[in-house]
Amino acid sequence: MKNAVGREIPDQLLGEGKEVYQGKGYMDGKYFQKATPRTRRYETPQESKIVQSIREACEKCGAHDGMTFSFHTEFREGDYVASMVAKVLIEDMGLKDITVAATSLGNAQDNFADYIEQGKIIGVQTSGVRGRIGEVISAGKLKTPAIIRSHGGRPRAIETGDVHIDIAFLAVASSDCCGNSSGIGGRNNCGSLGFAIHDTHFADHVVIVTDTIVEYPNLPSSISSIDVDCVCVVDEVGDATKISTKEARMTDNPRELMMAENVANVIAANPYFKDGFSFQTGVGGPSLAVNRFLEKHMLEKGIKMSFALGGTSKAICDLMDKGLVGRILDTQDFDQGAIDHIFKNPNHVEIDLSEYANPANKGAYVNKLDFVVLSALEIDTNFNVNVITGSDGVLRGAPGGHPDTAAGSKCCIIVTPLTRGRMATVCKDVVTVTTPGDCVDVLVTDYGIAVNPLRQDIIGYLDEAGIKHVTIESLQEKAYSMIGTPDDLEWEDDVVAIVEARDGTILDVVRKIKPMELD
Amino acid sequence: MKNAVGREIPDQLLGEGKEVYQGKGYMDGKYFQKATPRTRRYETPQESKIVQSIREACEKCGAHDGMTFSFHTEFREGDYVASMVAKVLIEDMGLKDITVAATSLGNAQDNFADYIEQGKIIGVQTSGVRGRIGEVISAGKLKTPAIIRSHGGRPRAIETGDVHIDIAFLAVASSDCCGNSSGIGGRNNCGSLGFAIHDTHFADHVVIVTDTIVEYPNLPSSISSIDVDCVCVVDEVGDATKISTKEARMTDNPRELMMAENVANVIAANPYFKDGFSFQTGVGGPSLAVNRFLEKHMLEKGIKMSFALGGTSKAICDLMDKGLVGRILDTQDFDQGAIDHIFKNPNHVEIDLSEYANPANKGAYVNKLDFVVLSALEIDTNFNVNVITGSDGVLRGAPGGHPDTAAGSKCCIIVTPLTRGRMATVCKDVVTVTTPGDCVDVLVTDYGIAVNPLRQDIIGYLDEAGIKHVTIESLQEKAYSMIGTPDDLEWEDDVVAIVEARDGTILDVVRKIKPMELD
Predict the structure, then answer these.
(1) Which residue among A291, B147, B271, B414 has the highest number of C-beta atoms inside a 10 angstrom radius?
(2) Distance (Å, whole) CA A289 – CA A208
(3) Which keywords are on file for this protein (chains A, B) (predicted)?
C-alpha cells in the first residue's frame, strides 16, 4: 500500500493497529491508554541497592531469553555501558533472542554487530544506526526488521506499548547507593540525561551503571531512586575524550559561512523572528555558524530568544550568558562547555525525550518551536528528507529529532550543500524518507534557496525582504547537471528496516541492498 | 475477620484483592502492573491551553456524572480551588455521583459537606477529614464509606489502580500558557507542589488553575506542560493569609519544652544519631522545639544531618543555612520562611508524594529515614496510634505521612501529653488505628517515656544513656487514674470510613456514631 509520501509499504507490515503514514497531524486528538511497567514493591527499607556486578544486576532483575533491553546514548561515541552489558547478557549469561531498544546505536556498540550476525540479537529499535551495526542490518543479518524511530517517536512508542522495555541499563555520571542519578558529579560527565529519564518510568526494571558513587542523597538528580532496582559500579562508564568534544571550532569554509548567513537571513525575514522567538540548531558545519549570524540580527533588532531547544553546544550557552537567550531546554550536551553550563544556571534546564518531542503527549516543546535549522543527507523535489541511508543504500545515519522538530516548528530550514563528493544532495527521490516533505519549509544550499510551495506565506516574506529563491526542481537539475543523473540503487525484496513516522505509522522501509557485482 | 492489629473488618469489605492488614512489610517484593491514564494525543501544535472558565475546562476534559476528580492541598486552609471547582461541577453543570480524591480535606472545602448531604458527592478518598466534612461523614451521610489513606498510600492506590482519577484540578501559584507550573512566582505562593505532581502522571485529564500567568516557558517547573490539558485563570487561587503562617513561635510552655528536650535526648542516645543522620518532624507544640534541642546535640557531637524530610518549616531551613543540614526533601511548606527558601537553595529539593512515602515504588525516602517525631490523638498499650478520630468518634484528623514515616524510619518517636482536657491520650484501645503499633518505637509524654518491647535495642540504648523509661501500661494507668476510665463509645453497624494501611490492606473501619441520648 502506498503512503502519503508515495512509498510502497508491504502489506505484511500492516494491520494490528499499524497503518501507513497519512500526513502530518493524522493522530492528533486520538485517545490512547498509556502502557505501563510491571514493577516490584520495595516496602521494606533497603540500606543500599548496590550490586557487585552487571551480572548480579541482570539476575536480580530476572534477565532471560527473549527480553527487550534499553540503553541510552548521552555518552555518545564514548559510551562503554551498552557494549559492556550486552557482553554480559550474551557471552557470560548465554541469553538469546534479545531485542535492543536504544536511543541510538553507533561505533561504541560495534559488538552488537557480532551478536546480530550470531543471531543472539534478533531485534533492534533505535534512532541511529551507524558503523558496523548499520552494515550488518543492511546486509540482512538481523532476524526481524530494525525499527527506526525519531527521538519523539521513541517515547511515543514506549507509551503506546509498541515497545515494552524489560530492563533499562542506564549509564550515569554519578549515583548514590539508591539510584538517585545525575549526568554530572562523576569522573565522566555527560550533562543532560534527557535520553535516559523516560525509560525509568516505563521499564519493568531499571539498572543504574556508574563509575562514581556519591553520598546519599544525590540531589538534585535527573533519575529518581524510586524508579531504580539496582546500582552497579564499573571502572569507567565511558571514554571521556569521546563523550564530549572541545568546543566545535566555527567553520572558516566560505561556502558554509555563506549558507549559514543565508539561513540567518531567511529566519530574520520571517515575522516569527521577534522578541521571544524560539530556535533549535545542530552542531558542526554551517549549523553552528548560524548562531553567530543570528546574534547579529538579534542585536540589530534588539530582540531576545525565549528558548533554545534540543542538543546543546557551548555556542548557545554563550548566547545565554550574553543575555540573549531566556531558557535552554537541553536533551543532550555536545561539548564540554555545555556540560559545564547545564546545572550551574537554573535557566539551562534538562528535559526528557517526551517533553522534547513526543507527539502523543499533551504538547511537546517542539510544538512551540519557531525555527529549526537541520541538515540532510538528501532532500528530494517533494521536500522529503533522508537522514538514515547513504547513497549506497546502507544504513548510516539517525533521524534523531529531525522529523519531530520539522513537524512541530513554524519554520523548518534544511541547510545542505547541493552536492557532496559525487552525490547530488538535492534529488528526484530520496533513497529513504525519514522526514516527510509536508514538514519541511525552506531549503538553503550553496547554489540557492528554495521554499516549499505549501508555504506561500514564507515565499511572501522572502520576496518582501528581497531574498532570492528558486524552485527546488531547478536546484535538483543543477545538481544533476554537475554530477550526472544518479543510477538507481538495486534492492532485494527483504525489508531490513522500517522507518516509523513519529506518530507510529510507517513512513518508509529500507530493503536489503543487492550485493554489487564486480565487472 | 480480625486483622494484625486486632480490628474486626467486615467480610463485605474484603475480596477482589482487598485483604485485612497483615503486619509491616507484608506486600514487600510483590510485583504489580502499574495503572495508567487514558490520554489525548496533542500532535498538532497549540499556541495556548488557556480556557476562559473552569466550566470550559471541565467540558473540554469531558466531565460527566460518576467521575472521580482530584485536588491537592498545598494551599492548605487558604485553598479556594477545590471548593470553586466542585461548585461549577455540581451547581453549574449539575453533575452527580461524584467521587473526590484529595490529598486532604478540611474547612476550606466546607461546601463538600453540603454536596455529600445532597447525595451529589458519593465517594471521598483522602488523607485528612476535618471540619464539617468529617461531621457529615461520621453521621453516615456519604453514600459509600470514605477511604482514608496516608500520603504514601495515595500514590500507591493510584498506581495499583485502586483509584483512577478522571480529571485532576491542580491549583498552582504560577503557570505559563501551556501548563508549566510552579508553587512560586505568583501572587499566592505555596512553595512545594509535592502533593500535586504525582496526579499529573496518572490522571486522564489535568486542569491547571492559577491566578498568575507568566511568560512561556515557566521553567524550572514542578508540573510539566506535557501532562496538562487546560490552563484556567481565576481571580485568586487562595487566601494568602491562610496558605502560609508566619514562622511558628517556639513554644514557651515548660511542659512542652521538657517533652521536646526528652525527645532530643532519646534521639541522641541512639547509635543512628551520627554524622549523616536523617530526620523528620512536624510543626507546632513540642515538635518544632525538638529542632532547637537537636541542634544543641549536633553541635556538641560535631555532626550534621544528611537530610530533613517531609513538610517543611523555617526552623529546618535555618538549620540548613547554618550548615547543619545537607538536603531538605520537601513535600509541602508550612510557613512563609520555607516558601521563600525552597527554590533559592538547590539543596532544598521538592519531592512528590510517591518519592516521599509510596510503599509500592522501588524505595521511598521514608525508607531512608533514621528518626521521625510524630504526634498522636491517642496511643494504646499496643503502641497503635490514632490520628483520625476524636474521643467522640467523629472524623477530625489526618494520617498524612504518619503511618509511612513510622514504618520506614529506624526510630519512630511519638510525643504527646498524657492527657488532653478530659481525655486520656495513652489508653487501652485507640478508637481507630491509623498507624499500627509494630511501626511505633518510643513514646515520650510529660509523665515519662515508654519503649515498644519489640525494640529491645532501643531499650538498651536508653539504659546505657541513663534515660529513664517505664512501661506503656504504667503510663496508661497513670492517665486513667488522673482522668478516670473513659466510657466506651457507642457505634451503629454502618461503616462510614475505611482506614487503609499504606500497603492497601484494611487497617481499621470507622462506624457511624450513635446519636447521644440526652437524659
Answers:
(1) B414
(2) 37
(3) Cytoplasm, Lyase, Transferase
Beta-strand ranges (E) seen in B60-212 are 68-71, 98-102, 121-126, 146-148, 167-171, 174-175, 181-182, 205-210
Q: For chain A, state the CA radius of gyration.
A: 23
Phi-psi map region of B119: left, alpha, beta (phi>0 left; psi -120 to 50 alpha): left
pLDDT one-digit tens code per residue, A430-475: 999 999 999 999 999 999 999 999 999 999 999 999 999 999 999 9
Q: Which residues are bridge partners to B380 per DSSP?
A: B427
Question: Within a 10 A sphere around the Cβ of B304, how many other Cβ atoms?
Answer: 17
Query: For residues A34 and A27, what is the distance between their CA atoms, to the nearest angstrom?
Result: 15
Instruction: Report the alpha-carbon distance of residue A353 to residue A358 in Å, rounded.
Output: 7
User: Beta A348-350 vs A305-312: how paired, if at all?
Assistant: unpaired
User: A27 and B42: CB-CB below 8 Å?
Assistant: no
Please tell me whether residue B5 adopts helix, strand or coil conformation: coil
Q: Which of B209, B200, B205 is nearest to B232 (CA)?
A: B209
Quick check: helix, strand or coil at residue A301? helix
Cell digits of residue A110: 560495534
Sorted by where each starts, the structural domains of chain A and their CATH numbers stand as 48-243 (3.40.1080.10), 254-489 (3.40.1080.10)
Distance CA B495, CA B270 (A): 42
Pairing of strands A423-424, A419-420: antiparallel
For residue B125, list its beta bridge partners. Answer: B101, B147
CB contacts, 8 Å: B219 with chain A: 327, 329, 347, 349
Please return the burial class of B258, using the count of CB atoms within 10 Å of its CB with bins 0-12, 13-18 and 19+: middle
Q: For residue range B70-90, list pLDDT tens digits in order.
A: 999 999 999 999 999 999 999
Inspect the interface and report whether the beta carbons of B217 and A360 lie closer than 8 Å. no
Residue indicated by cell numbers 547543619: B324
H or E element in which residue B311 lies: strand B305-312
Query: Which candidate, A101, A120, A102, A109, places its Cα nearest to that of A77?
Result: A109
**What are the E-state strand segments in A342-403?**
348-350, 371-374, 378-380, 385-386
Which of B446, B421, B439, B454 has the alpha carbon at shortest distance from B263?
Answer: B446
Phi, psi of A223 (to 5 degrees): -115, 135
Dmax (CA) of chain A:
72
> CA–CA separation, A452 vs A440, rounded Å?
7
Inspect the interface and report whether the beta carbons of B226 and A363 lie closer than 8 Å. yes
Rounded to 10 deg, the angle between the B131-138 and B110-117 helix axes is 20
Q: Which residues contact A463 (CB under 8 A, 6 or more apart)?
A: none
Query: Of how many residues is chain A composed?
Result: 519
Q: For B180-221, how does the pLDDT look when each residue is reduced to its tens digit (9 = 90+)? A: 999 999 999 999 999 999 999 999 999 999 999 999 999 999
How far is residue B479's CA from residue B422's CA, in Å, rounded to a whole number?
10
What's the pLDDT at A15? 86
Please state, as a whole number, how many other Cβ atoms lie within 10 Å of the Cβ of residue B441: 24
Say how many CA atoms lie within 13 Å of A489 toward its Cβ.
Answer: 20
Cβ neighbours of residue A333 closer than 8 Å, sequence gap 6 or more = A74, A183, A190, A191, A192, A244, A311, A312, A313, A339, A342
Nearest to A417 by CA among A295, A263, A280: A263
Q: Which residues of A touch B37 (CB under 8 A)?
A: 33-34
Q: Is B367's CB within 8 Å of A45's CB?
A: yes
CB half-sphere exposure, B466, CA atoms < 13 A: 0
Give the A:B interface size as CB pairs under 8 Å: 188
C-alpha cell of residue B368: 531512608
pLDDT at A480 over 80: yes
Q: Enumerate residues 6+ apart whose C-beta is below 8 A from A517.
A: none
* Facing A368 at nearest CB: one of B45, B229, B346: B45
Question: Do the Cβ atoms of A42 and B363 come within 8 Å?
Answer: yes
> How is A14-55 classified by DSSP, letter by letter?
-BTTB-B---TTTTTT-EEEPP--EEE---S--S--EESSHH
